[in-house]
Amino acid sequence: MFILGPAHHVHLSGCALSPTQTYKTPLYDLPIDSQVYSELYATGLFEEMSLSTDEDEHSIEMQLPYIAKVLESRRGQFTIVPILVGSLTLEREQAYSQTLSRYLASADNLFVISSDFCHWGQRFKFTYYNKAHGDIWQSIEQLDHMGMDLIESMNHVAFNDYLKQYHNTICGRHPIGILLAMLTTLRQNGNGHLFAVKFVKYAQSSRCATMKDSSVSYAAGALTIK
Known about the structure:
Number of helices: 7
CATH architecture of the largest domain: 3-Layer(aba) Sandwich
Shape: globular
Mean pLDDT: 95
Helix content: 25-40%
Order of helices and strands: EEEEHEHHEHEEHHHEE
């Protein structure tokens, strides 16, 4: 189980791996896959995060209880591969995809991409509002769905261009970028697999009506490979 989460508290120009061997959850402990970690370190693309960075970061941590609960019947039969993703360029997202895509192609692995969507409001320093779409919350929804549509289309470059144009504050944009780059790599290899990305749920923490309001958007999607 690979878990890619964005770095919120430290600046990373690449990706980092945990210094620990186990993550604890309220249900049971999740062991980190030392063999896969060794393979990733061998590429020279990954660094080790500090313990304090690991403890402070929530993007990976918040996924752990859900993973433990969903896979409770397989307790002790799986490992996790947490990866902290920094502020990557398009080219670096593509570089990491070359390493990680072989794991995504294997039926033995699952990937979890941790991200919120739009963080809107003055406290987030993002107040994009297109009045043509109605109230502020409707403008936010339209902006988010624009990005979600591009993710569903699996177009890495178009999603990157969207971020450059609208600056939507999607915290997991770089983990998402790695996923899209991996899909591009696998599709170009022509291995006969069929890929589909579908968002199944979207919500906002509140409906912004004035410029004094704020909200965070959430979206859940699934990738299937046949």
